[in-house]
Specification:
The chain is of the alpha+beta class and 389 residues long. Strands 1-2-4-3 form a 4-stranded antiparallel sheet. The longest helix is centred in the N-terminal third of the chain and has 74 residues, at 3-76. 33% of the residues lie in helices and 25% in strands. α2 packs antiparallel against α3 and α3 runs antiparallel to α4 (227-233). The protein has 3 domains: 11-76; 78-123 and 138-205 and 226-241, Ribosomal protein S6/Translation elongation factor EF1B (Alpha-Beta Plaits); 266-368, no CATH class. The protein is flat, with a radius of gyration of 42 Å. 16% of the residues are buried.
Length: 389
């Protein structure tokens, strides 16, 4: 075999060694691997489609379950104009709903009653929510309702507003003591501020009148419960004045001896005197604190100013006996520290003024506060009772 034949044989052999596996890969292995990759992709897409189908089924179930409620909302909704112009129809509905709110205020008997239209989004197109899923599903007309009266009267107004047979909600509710009555904690008088939104949903019923013609009224509050009375009996805005103290019977006069002066129990009296608040105030360029003490025994309030000259707290019972004589030695936003014949004792907001032994600061405690030793109480000489013959 000459050189050329040998070279040709080697070339054929090399082509056979390299080409046969390449042809096998090209015609058999590469299609198999591509088919396996396609199968994995299809399996992932099928799994995703199954999940989406399950989610859609769940959404359809919820929609079917809520269908009666949605239909009821369309019936109770602020209605769409039937024959009138939209603007005139809206004005008529606003006037009618305002009248119903005013009727609720009159039923409650509130003073300074007022109803004010504050905002209306009905018939106003929002360009950002015209089309697609961002389209607004409902619009509202907002009224602000206010008035003053007892908490029971406020409860009556809320019941009447709640029973208006038109789809609405309370956007805000504020009940507080008026500024003019905060110094009279035993008086049942509060201020109501209420924001009511009348709602118009998409697909609302077309009618001219505000109220729908209902075959069956919706279930409201339990009619057998007297909600206004329950609310009034748990009134958090009133501090009930204590009953007048029971005067002990006057003992018959004793011949030759001055009858002892009656006195109320010190603990009973001082546990009815409480620190009700601490606030800051300014006097010129200086800032100080003012403490408010309320005596339930006499239904009176005492103020003590940290920058004032008179920084004492004193209380006497109905017989003129001193129940407490104390000096304000320290005052801050958290507490007031008093010095009485019992020693130093702190009082926080809401706490009474009886200096129980456990509340009196020991030497280590008042030294930490930078306070001096309290003056020692003077011992009164014992008086000898006269002999009776």
């Amino acid at each position: 075999m000459n050189g050329n034949n040998r070279m040709a044989s080697l070339v054929i052999l090399a082509l056979g060694v390299v080409g046969v596996p390449g042809l096998a890969y090209w015609f058999f292995l590469e299609p198999l691997w591509s088919l396996e990759s396609t199968e994995s992709t299809l399996a992932a897409e099928m799994e995703k489609a199954n999940r989406e189908s399950e989610e859609h089924d769940e959404l359809r179930k919820r929609l079917f379950a809520d269908h009666p409620r949605l239909e009821f909302w369309k019936e109770m909704s602020w209605p769409v104009a039937k024959d009138k112009l939209a603007e005139r129809h809206t004005n008529d509905l606003q006037a009618e709903f305002r009248k119903k709110l005013e009727t609720a205020l009159n039923k409650g008997g509130l003073k300074k009653a007022a109803v004010e239209l504050t905002r209306s989004s009905i018939n106003q197109v929002n360009p950002a929510a015209k089309q697609g899923p961002n389209k607004a599903l409902w619009q509202s007309t907002t009224f602000r309702v206010s008035g003053q009266g007892s908490l029971k009267d406020v409860g009556t107004v809320l019941e009447k507003v709640h029973s208006i047979p038109v789809l609405h909600r309370l956007a805000s509710l504020d009940i507080k003591k008026p500024e003019s009555e905060r110094k009279n904690p035993s008086k049942d008088f509060v201020e109501l501020s209420l924001t009511v939104e009348a709602i118009s949903v998409v697909g609302a019923e077309k009618r001219e009148n505000l109220e729908p013609t209902l075959k069956k009224m919706p279930v409201l509050l339990n009619p057998s419960r007297k909600h206004s009375e329950i609310l009034a009996n748990a009134n958090p805005f009133v501090i009930v004045a204590p009953p007048p103290p029971v005067r002990p019977p006057t003992p018959p006069p004793t011949v030759g001896r001055t009858p002892p002066k009656p006195s109320e129990d010190r603990e009973d009296y001082l546990t009815s005197v409480k620190l009700t608040g601490i606030s800051s105030y300014e006097r010129g360029t200086r800032t100080g604190w003012v403490a408010y003490f309320y005596d339930q025994n006499t239904n009176s309030e005492q103020k003590v100013y940290s920058l004032g000259l008179n920084r004492t707290v004193g209380y006497q019972d109905q017989y003129g006996n001193d129940m407490l004589k104390a000096k304000v030695v320290s005052m801050n936003v958290r507490e007031v520290i008093l010095l009485s014949e019992d020693g130093y004792f702190p009082v926080v907001v809401g706490q009474d003024l009886f200096p129980a032994e456990r509340r009196v600061l020991n030497q280590e405690q008042y030294k930490e506060l930078g306070l001096e030793d309290p003056p020692k109480a003077e011992k009164k000489p014992a008086t000898k009772e006269p002999d009776l013959e």
